[in-house]
Amino acid sequence: MSSGSTRPLSLNDGTNQDAARPAAPTVSTHEGEPSMAQILAALVNTQALLANTLSRGPPTTSPVQVHSTSDTSSSISLFDGTPQQSAHEWITRVERIAALAHWMPSLTLATAASRFTGSAKDWHSAYGSQYDTWEQWKEALILQFKRKLTMQEFLELQTKRRLQSHETIVEYMYSKNAILNKAPYRLAEEERISLILSDIEDNTWTNPLAAQLCGTVTELIDRAALLDARRRTTVCAENDKKPSSSTASRGQGSNQRVLQESFTQQLVCLVQHQESDPLQGQLALLDQLQQTPCAT
């Protein structure tokens, strides 16, 4: 009967072989601690995120907006729109300060307009306020105030600047050279040096500087710095020799009192003489008045 018996199907036949395989070994860990596989997976994810971030380039940052303060805005010189000031140079200084202070273009425009006086202020009120962007506004400003000094205006302006007794030679040269920048054409270094030395009226300082044969204004200023100490000593010595105003006034007052006392005594004598002989007394009085100096 063995041939007629049927054999039961095995659970491991063909289709169910995976169920018979032994389970993969696992790493035993303490309760609450991650397994080694979890640690490696986290590390791989972190590296993938880092590589993705670097491939997109550096992160973009929004510009920092800085608000202007009174101290910062006052560093911009006033602009009145006259030919003595160059609009282009003034705009360049404004942009340099704005870059150092990290100003936004809108803040730069508002701060620059607040430093206007005279014709420039009137222009901004009538026309400049119509421009919304800094680039448009500055181009319109330069176009409006582009006129330079005429040669006659320049010569009159630079001639007025002379070396003063209260300032150093170096201070004078820096100020004079700044005025020479306003010339209607570019001056050569030799022309600048000649104009600077021409307005130092005391030959005590002009001759040593001219003898140096400097090639640039910078070299001339370096030589002038050596003369400043000597010049300060000379000016102080001259001031010490001058009598003070109080001493001079006391001397003048004393002389006036002496003249007045002498004149009074002479008048008394003449009046007494007039009482005895009226005619002779009047003649003598007139003669004395003509000879007596006026007290001032």
Largest sheet: none
The rough form would be described as elongated
Mean pLDDT: 76
How many β strands by DSSP? 0
Spatial gap, N to C terminus: 171 Å
Q: Order of helices and strands, N to C? A: HHHHHHHHHHHHHH
Unreliable residue runs: 1-20, 24-29
Portion in helices: 55-70%
Helical segment count: 14
Structural class: mainly alpha
Strand content: under 5%
Radius of gyration: 48 Å
Task: Walk me through the topology.
Elements: H1 17-20, H2 36-55, H3 70-73, H4 87-101, H5 105-113, H6 118-126, H7 134-144, H8 151-159, H9 169-180, H10 189-198, H11 203-210, H12 217-241, H13 245-276, H14 278-291
Helix pairs in contact: 9-12, 13-14
Question: What does this entry look like structurally?
Answer:
It comes from Rhipicephalus microplus (Cattle tick). This is Retrotransposon gag domain-containing protein. Residues 1-33, 54-81, 236-256 are annotated as: Disordered. Residues 68-77 have a biased composition (Low complexity). The chain is an all-alpha fold. Among the domains are: 70-144; 151-241, no CATH class; 264-296. The protein contains 14 helices and no strands. It has helices spanning 17-20, 36-55, 70-73, 87-101, 105-113, 118-126, 134-144, 151-159, 169-180, 189-198, 203-210, 217-241, 245-276, 278-291. Helix 9 (169-180) packs across helix 12 (217-241) and helix 13 packs antiparallel against helix 14. It is elongated and about 130 Å long. The model is unreliable at 1-20 and 24-29 (pLDDT under 50).
